[in-house]
């Protein structure tokens, strides 16, 4: 027959609280189904794992039997015939699962009808009854030792009663042996009567023991279930508390997100102000228009240029994508409209825009689209003459600064050349030595000035003019300006006038810090006749 299915784990401290499994002496073929609990998670399929029944019978014989009917986390085992031989309680029975084992299972073998009569020896049968009682005592002791903290003093009391019973049974055994000897020598009837009485007494005491045992186990189960209910309530309360803490934490995270967004917005706004301030920290920024590259032509919508006498178009001006540039006009009437053509890094035409008007009081700011590397600028001049090349300026940044020439235009500018020649025409040196000395002095001053001005120019130069070598190439290309300087030096003039000119020039150059220059700007007291030099610019 099939026994009630059970669930086992590997904790080994977890007792089996259900009633012990029971089989009867003389029966065969009982089948037990076992399911592994959560602690067996490493064995998800028992078909590939060795499973073995290990048990110690009431008379202390060891039984081992492999289990073959197994799948997933469940297996079935049929008890061997030798487990039905002796009545009593199996002191130890468990299952070996791979390299682990289950907690113990309690198994009771009940007495079969007529088994004692058929044994053939009343003394041997009586000893069997005593051994059965001893197995109950030993099983109870094991159970009490395992669950000492959970089962009350009734177990100890019950154990004492059973021990008393065993002791009395031993005395009865001794008396039975004496009676048996008397019976052998006298009559079988008197012994049979005594034996029946002892059997009756034993059955009565055994029944009382089983009743006490079942009551004690029921009491334990009730108290254990109550503890489980309390534990479940505590767990539910703790889970609710944890869920609330998680919810509060998520709310705090959402608040942190909004705070972080607010901080980022403030940072972006401050950065924009700092970028604007950085762009406006210098009074003059580099003019990206090189006048000498300007031609009298205009650009069509496809970027192709054609000759046009009353308009001009710049060469390719390097720009940075996603940056803002300012276009300004100085000292003339307003232009009609400015046109910007956009080109990629290979100078291939991308598109053309028709921007708004530019006036002396209202500059125009353009935003360079992504992936754009060059622009070309083509405005209509006020009088349709194609002139006013030196009156336009394109510079990096969203604000306009004072007008300036591109560094490549300074050496070839007519007014600069005329001023140099006129000054040198008035120079007068009586000897070559004085000329050499003045040249040497001038070269030294020029080097000092060049080192300062070149450093300043490079700091604000566009990407196409960011090294001293490139700046030197730009000056070398302006051979006419360099030759004019050399020609002027060879001429003789009045020494007094040269000295006066030198003093005048020195008074026109004033070193000044950025803070002081900014203060003059704010007060509107910048002197246009003085060249302000900002060493730390």
Low-confidence parts lasting 5 or more residues at pLDDT below 50?
116-122, 457-466, 479-494
The total number of structural domains is: 4
Which term fits the overall shape? rod-shaped
Mean pLDDT across residues: 72
Radius of gyration: 57 Å
Estimate what percentage of residues fall within beta strands.
Answer: 15-25%
| First-to-last CA distance | 103 Å
Keywords: Coiled coil
Organism: Companilactobacillus farciminis
Protein name: BppU N-terminal domain-containing protein
Coiled coil: 253-280
What is the gist of this entry?
This protein is an alpha+beta fold and 537 residues long.
Q: Any key phrases for this structure?
A:
537 residues, alpha+beta, Jelly Rolls, 4 domains, 4-stranded mixed β-sheet, 10 helices, 22 strands
Mind explaining what this structure looks like?
The chain is of the alpha+beta class and 537 residues long. The chain folds into four domains: 1-115, Sandwich (Immunoglobulin-like); 119-279; 291-403, Jelly Rolls, CATH 2.60.120; 410-533, no CATH class. It is 44% helix and 18% strand. The protein has ten helices and 22 strands. It has helices at 122-146, 154-185, 188-279, 407-410, 414-425, 432-459, 468-477, 479-489, 495-508, 514-523, and strands spanning 6-8, 21-24, 31-36, 51-56, 62-66, 69-71, 74-78, 88-90, 92-97, 100-101, 107-110, 297-299, 305-307, 317-318, 324-329, 338-343, 349-354, 364-367, 374-379, 392-396, 509-511, 531-533. A four-stranded mixed sheet has the order 1-3-7-6, with no helix packed on it. A hairpin with a 2-residue loop joins strand 6 and strand 7. Residues 116-122, 457-466 and 479-494 have low confidence and may be disordered.
């Amino acid at each position: 027959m099939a026994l009630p299915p059970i669930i086992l784990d590997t904790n080994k401290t977890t007792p089996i609280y259900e009633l012990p499994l029971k089989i009867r002496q003389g029966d065969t073929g009982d089948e037990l189904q076992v399911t592994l609990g959560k602690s067996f998670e490493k064995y998800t399929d028992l078909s590939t794992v060795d499973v073995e029944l290990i048990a110690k019978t009431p008379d202390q014989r060891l039984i081992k039997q492999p289990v073959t009917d197994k799948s997933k986390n469940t297996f079935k085992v049929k008890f061997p015939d030798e487990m039905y031989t002796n009545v009593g309680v199996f002191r130890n029975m468990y299952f070996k699962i791979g390299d682990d084992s289950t907690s113990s299972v309690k198994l009771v073998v009940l007495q079969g009808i007529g088994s004692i009569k058929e044994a053939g020896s009343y003394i041997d049968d009586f000893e069997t009854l005593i051994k059965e009682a001893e197995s109950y005592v030993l099983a109870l002791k094991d159970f009490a030792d395992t669950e000492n903290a959970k089962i009350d003093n009734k177990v100890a009391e019950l154990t004492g009663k059973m021990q008393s019973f065993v002791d009395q049974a031993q005395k009865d055994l001794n008396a039975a042996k004496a009676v048996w000897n008397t019976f052998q020598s006298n009559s079988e009837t008197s012994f049979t009567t005594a034996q029946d009485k002892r059997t009756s007494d034993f059955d009565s005491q055994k029944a009382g023991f089983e009743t006490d045992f079942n009551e004690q186990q029921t009491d334990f189960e009730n108290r254990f279930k109550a503890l489980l209910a309390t534990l479940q309530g505590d767990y539910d309360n703790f889970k609710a508390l944890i869920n609330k803490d998680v919810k509060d934490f998520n709310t705090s995270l959402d608040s942190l997100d909004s705070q972080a967004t607010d901080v980022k917005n403030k940072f972006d706004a401050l950065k924009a102000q700092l970028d604007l301030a950085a762009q406006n920290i210098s009074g003059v920024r580099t003019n990206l228009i090189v006048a000498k590259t300007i031609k009298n032509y205009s650009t069509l919508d496809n970027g192709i240029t054609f000759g046009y006498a009353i308009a001009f178009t710049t060469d390719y001006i390097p720009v940075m994508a996603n940056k803002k540039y300012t276009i300004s006009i100085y000292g003339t009437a307003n232009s009609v409209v400015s046109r910007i053509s956009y080109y990629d890094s290979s100078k291939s035409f991308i598109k053309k825009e028709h921007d708004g008007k530019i006036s002396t009081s209202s500059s125009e700011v353009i935003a360079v689209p992504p992936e754009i590397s060059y622009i070309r600028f083509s405005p209509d001049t006020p009088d349709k003459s194609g002139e006013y090349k030196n009156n336009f300026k394109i510079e990096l940044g969203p604000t306009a600064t004072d007008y300036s020439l591109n560094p490549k235009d300074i050496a070839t500018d007519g007014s600069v050349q005329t001023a140099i020649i006129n000054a040198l025409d008035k120079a007068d040196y009586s000897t070559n030595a004085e000329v050499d000395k003045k040249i040497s002095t001038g070269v030294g001053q020029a080097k000092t000035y060049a080192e300062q001005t070149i450093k300043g120019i490079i700091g604000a130069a566009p990407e196409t003019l960011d090294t001293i070598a490139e700046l030197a190439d730009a000056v070398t290309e302006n051979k006419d300006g360099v030759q004019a300087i050399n020609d002027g030096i060879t001429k003789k003039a009045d020494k007094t006038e040269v000295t006066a000119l030198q003093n005048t020039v020195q008074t026109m150059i004033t070193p000044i810090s950025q803070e002081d220059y900014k203060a003059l700007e704010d007060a509107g007291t910048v002197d246009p006749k003085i060249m302000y030099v900002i060493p730390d610019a």
